[in-house]
Design goal:
The chain is α+β, with helices and mostly antiparallel strands and 246 residues long. The protein is built from five helices and 13 strands.
């Protein structure tokens, strides 16, 4: 961790490591235990010269406006749907998360399996978004770091509750807004009544970004290919190929 990181009132520095799959090895790093019992910390990733299974902690930089700070349980499980761009922001979010738990804190020796779903649910509400615009929760522009990364809920039911919590369907995702307006002017009919789409690339729980792809806004949901039986170049009947989504 970087030198010169100031301590906030009531928190203390502890040895910390994230809970990762058994096939990954994480070096023990530093976290900041909050008065409410959750830990604020930077992330872990594979070092440039490290083996595929090795992970090391990102150094912390005082005053950085683009560094991701995460919130986890003391035993290393992620306790927030969103990362935050500064440590004070993450600390404030951790305080608000534990306020929604029984007793208003994450107790030492807590039953992680029982309390973690409650913490994640509390962290996914609109007022927990790390970005705001004119005082209101905001998903961001979709450009650079000004975008709210999101960890996908573990179940479909939790996903639906999260969508419901975020209220009215926006006209279109902000990442595509300028392009949508331009396409309307030239006569296209872009889709403007859908939620930003959350999609998981790979395994459940992977970090995803909550904005739709231009294919959704621009009504370009096109598949190519054949289904069922097809005819090859020699006129023979063959099993059809699966459709390809560009």
């Amino acid at each position: 961790m970087g030198a010169g990181i100031s301590q906030a009132a009531g928190e203390r520095e502890i040895a910390f490591a994230p809970a990762l799959p058994d096939d990954l090895k994480a070096e023990t790093g530093i976290g900041y235990l909050q008065p409410g019992g959750l830990v604020v910390h930077t992330g872990w990733s594979r070092p440039h010269d490290g083996a595929p299974h090795e992970r090391s902690q990102h150094p912390a930089y005082e005053g950085s406006s683009v560094q991701c700070w995460n919130i986890s349980t003391p035993d290393g499980h992620r306790a927030s749907r969103f990362p935050y761009l500064t440590r004070p922001d993450a600390a404030a979010a951790a305080e608000r998360i534990v306020a929604g738990l029984p007793g208003g804190l994450w107790p030492s020796g807590a039953d992680t399996a029982a309390l973690l779903p409650l913490a994640l649910e509390a962290s996914g509400t609109p007022d927990m978004l790390p970005l705001t615009h004119k005082g209101k929760p905001n998903w961001g522009s979709g450009l650079g770091s000004n975008l709210a990364d999101f960890w996908m809920p573990d179940t479909r039911a939790a996903y639906e509750r999260m969508i419901e919590a975020h209220g009215r369907i926006p006209k279109n995702c902000q990442a595509c807004a300028k392009r949508v307006r331009a396409q309307k002017r030239i006569g296209w009919l872009p889709r403007t009544s859908h939620w930003p789409q959350w999609s998981v690339q790979g395994h459940r729980g992977q970090l995803v970004r909550p904005h739709c792809y231009c294919t959704a806004c621009m009504r370009m949901d096109v598949s190519m290919g054949t289904f069922g039986l097809g005819i090859d170049q020699d006129g023979e009947t063959v099993p059809g190929s699966m459709a390809i989504y560009p």
